[in-house]
Amino acid sequence: VSVANFNNNPQFSGNLAADPFSLPGLLQRLGMLEESQSGAPTLTNEQLAAFQMQFSGNSSEATMPSLTLRLGEAEVQASGSARFATATAPMNISYSVIGGDIDLSPYITADEPTETETEPEATTAAPAEPDTPLPTGLLSSMNLIGSVSLASVTVNNMRFDNINLYTNIEDSVLDLELTPVSAFDGSLQGSLRLDARSDEPALSTRFSTDSLNLLQLAPSISRFNAVTGNLNMESEHSGRGSSVDALLNTLSGSTTFTVSDNSVDIGLIKQVFTAIAALSPDGASIQQWPDIIRFNEMGGYITLDEGLQVNQNIKLRMDNFDITGSGGIDLAAGSFDYDLLFTVLGDPFTQTIPIGELYHDISWPVQCSAAFDDPVGQYCGPDFNAVRDIFAQIGTNAVRNRLEEVISDQVPEEVQDSARGLLRNLLNR
Fold first, then answer.
1. pLDDT for res 410
2. What torsion do the CA atoms of 366, 369, 371, 376 make, to the nearest 10 degrees?
3. Which residues of the chain have pLDDT under 70?
4. N or C: which terminus of the chain has fewer CB atoms within 10 Å of its end residue's CB?
5. What SS3 class is residue 83?
6. Which residues, 6+ apart, have CB-to-CB distance to 272 below 8 Å?
7. What is the H or E stretch that residue 307 is in?
8. Separation CA 103–CA 161 (nearest Å)
9. Sign for the pseudo-dihedral over CA of 96, 98, 102, 107
10. What pLDDT shows up at residue 120?
């Protein structure tokens, strides 16, 4: 490092380099990464990190013409500059990052459960996490433009190709854009805008996927293996507030999706309809359905209105099976609560789920309320009181229809209207 004109207009320049080192170990020593029970992962010489940087500047600006970071065999090249704030202009920053194939798996520590660990007999509610304020002050203090371009990133067997992320901050507005990234045999992309020009910052997001293979995605998302296929999804949401909690509590928008080439584990649906059929007065039973079903069409939507905990509306259509309802999720408690209607549709819909006509086109009330960690079999169950009322109404309708046939066939035409009126009075009591 060299410094000149220290007392007048200081100028500096230099080179900084580090021999191969353990990146997780360094982050743990700096307190930026929590140390696990097993400590930092063991890395081979080919997996250690190293870097070399050139920099220069003066009292008004600083530049980094070159930064070379090596992670094992991968190399990342970066450059950037910063023009310091003045009385009339905020700080201006620009940067560029270009890299090849990066495998981050060796640098990620995963805790392994020990043989002596046992499940606690009782759990207490975890203390609420403190709310996180948004960095609105930072957005107003600078203008920034930059890009990250990586050939691929691999994390624990998940590979993302053709990553291009663009960042822009101008006039207290942050824009992030992720162009299509190849992943899970499909692609994903998204954008985010945070407008902090007012006292109540506004957030807007867009996210979409194209032919994302759910079978490959399932290992990374807990309990996501009940559905396989290719996910196409479009999502737009907005929120407002000066903290993360405020944004979540005002989040509104919609997500639409379809799943092609699908297969669905309908075990929970079978469980619900078996319970419904057990309440049938004539003892009718649901015929045996396969555990896994492929649907010709599968899709739906989820809408949010002022937050996640209430006012969610959902719809799922799988050929002749329809789910609609409303409710919400409590992220802090790790639970959900929905009031749903399960409907098996009759003709002309494709009869992929076969069921007797008695159950066609009837919306059966189902309550889905549980913790995410509960067994899936405990997620949903029928509203038994409402189901009994429906069966009672079905019985009344069956009697009415049979008597209507008798009146039409056997009662003289001149007294049929009187007979029908008497029938209505009797059955409506």
1. 57
2. -10
3. 27, 31-47, 109-129, 220-224, 281-287, 394-429
4. C
5. strand
6. 342, 364, 366, 380, 381, 382
7. none
8. 12
9. negative
10. 45
